[in-house]
Hints:
- The protein has one domain (2-142): 3-Layer(aba) Sandwich (Rossmann fold), CATH 3.40.50.9100.
- The chain is an alpha/beta fold.
- The chain has helices at residues 19-22, 27-41, 53-62, 82-91, 129-142, and strands spanning 2-7, 44-49, 69-73, 95-99, 121-124.
- The chain is globular and about 35 Å long.
- The longest helix is centred in the N-terminal third of the chain and has 15 residues, at 27-41.
- It starts with a strand and ends with a helix.
- Helix 4 links the parallel strand 3 and strand 4 (95-99).
- The protein contains 5 helices and 5 strands.
- The chain is 37% helix and 18% strand.
- Helix 2 (27-41) runs parallel beside helix 5 and helix 3 (53-62) runs parallel beside helix 4.
Amino acid sequence: MKLFVINGPNLNMLGIREPDVYGSTSYASLCRMVEEHAAALGIQVELYQSNHEGDLVDYIQKAYGNADGIVINPGAYTHTSIAILDAVKAVGVPTVEVHISKVEEREAFRQVSYIRAACVATITGHGLAGYLEAMDLLTEGAK
């Protein structure tokens, strides 16, 4: 089994950007955590991060025929990108939306998630552990 773990804008700034909201753990540490969890699950994982919407769309499309599941934190594109929604719908790969913070308790504009309509689940407010929960969910579904 192979999962793509895709992160959108500003997630490369974890540990620096608003640590009161996103914590003090770096993006590199998140990547290590995901890779270690994949190894424990006995699966492959590819990590990708971009601040550019089109690059994220391209990477989602790469999942077609190459990945069994997608874990995605689209960052701010969650609330604005129909293109990312359409890409997830197009590839037909089970996808879990992840958010480090509890977006449902934040600003009104964060209450809209375009991508959610194409996802099998959404995990919010569990910090970085939400990524591991999403990986578990996708691997359980494949058994």
